[in-house]
Amino acid sequence: MRVRVLGSGSYLADPLRGSPGTLLRVEQASLLVDAGSGTLQRLARAGLDPAFLDAVILTHRHVDHCADLAALLFCMKHQRSPRRVRDLVLVGSEGLGEHLDRLYALWGSSLMADSFDLQVVELPLCGPGEADLPGGVVVASVPANHSEGALHYRFRAPDGVTVVVSGDTGPSEALEQLAAGADLLLCECGLPTGESFPAHLDAVEVARIVAAARPRRVLLHHYAPRPDLDADVARIVATGVPTAWSEDGMEIDVRRVP
Q: Structural domain tally of the chain?
């Protein structure tokens, strides 16, 4: 599995970091996790035509994570060369279908697929869920400690490689369990150390999650520049798990570690 960071930032305007978006690629499929503002352009920079995108998975429906969903659907419907014909799988928590209906009500038939099928998969908010994705990838979900509708995801490729995406979250025992032994944990770290906010994480809490879960590698995302970035990552590295800040355009070949 290859992971391409499309947007490493947050809801804040940042000249170097876009809103959240991550592209997962396996041999037979391309999966987009979150679609914050600017994702459509950054997909093009990554060399992926939306006509060949297989699935869009939303961690939750805050605007900085799903603003470009409408733009993607509009592009997929109206692009003529190449014309999209493959099905698109759209995954999220309960209420995703209603969210899509509201987009249709706002933008009309301009978003409604006509040359391909759109398959909406809603995962539960009251416990674990699982779905089969294109390319033989299986995604497992558990509720996150954020807004209603937020989920954590664990993606398992056919070769056994596992990537966990936290989405936005506060302290979360569910994330600890889901990320246990993962080959890569892409974890939000939006708060300066010591700042308390129940729906996001600082480096102290990320370090606690990493120490409990012991993933093979950690990328921190959903952040804005601040003076303590080096100290924050050092705190997590001290757990013994390689850790770095994600950057827009970064690409990682994730391999299974025995």
A: 1
